[in-house]
């Protein structure tokens, strides 16, 4: 019974939406070696994406739209960067014709 109550409590907490003001800001992966990738989430449903290669040459700089829905965010015209070597594969950066959805979670009160 205690396990059921604990599980229900965790479920209720995890279903709480993220406040939009907690999402705005600049995000950048820390473990990438081939690219410097920055995602800036702005107010009014806009985001900016800037990617540099390892020689610090700007390869991508664009702005598009996003939509928040509870604990998820849906990015339009998204480039899915997996830290590929964009010097060796320069055409990969042109592939922004996709929609990407990801989820937020809070850990110790931080998104």
What can you tell me about this protein's structure?
This protein is mainly β and 111 residues long. It has a single domain (18-103), classed as Beta Barrel (Lipocalin). It has one helix and six strands; from the N terminus they run αββββββ. The protein has a six-stranded antiparallel β-sheet, with no helix packed on it. β1 and β2 (35-41) form a beta hairpin. It is globular. Mean pLDDT is 75; it is low at 1-15.
Q: What key attributes describe this structure?
A:
111 residues, mainly beta, Lipocalin, 6-stranded antiparallel beta sheet, 1 helix, 6 strands, disordered N terminus
Structure, briefly:
The protein is mainly beta. The chain is built from one helix and six strands; from the N terminus they run H-E-E-E-E-E-E.
Shape: globular
Q: What is the topology, as strand order, of the major beta sheet?
A: 1-2-3-4-5-6
CATH architecture: Beta Barrel
Highest-level CATH class: Mainly Beta
Separation, N- and C-terminal Cα atoms: 31 Å
Number of helices, where a helix is a run of at least 4 consecutive DSSP H or I residues: 1
Give the topology, please.
Blueprint: H1 2-14, E1 25-27, E2 35-41, E3 46-53, E4 58-69, E5 72-75, E6 100-103
Antiparallel strand pairs: 1-2, 2-3, 3-4, 4-5, 5-6
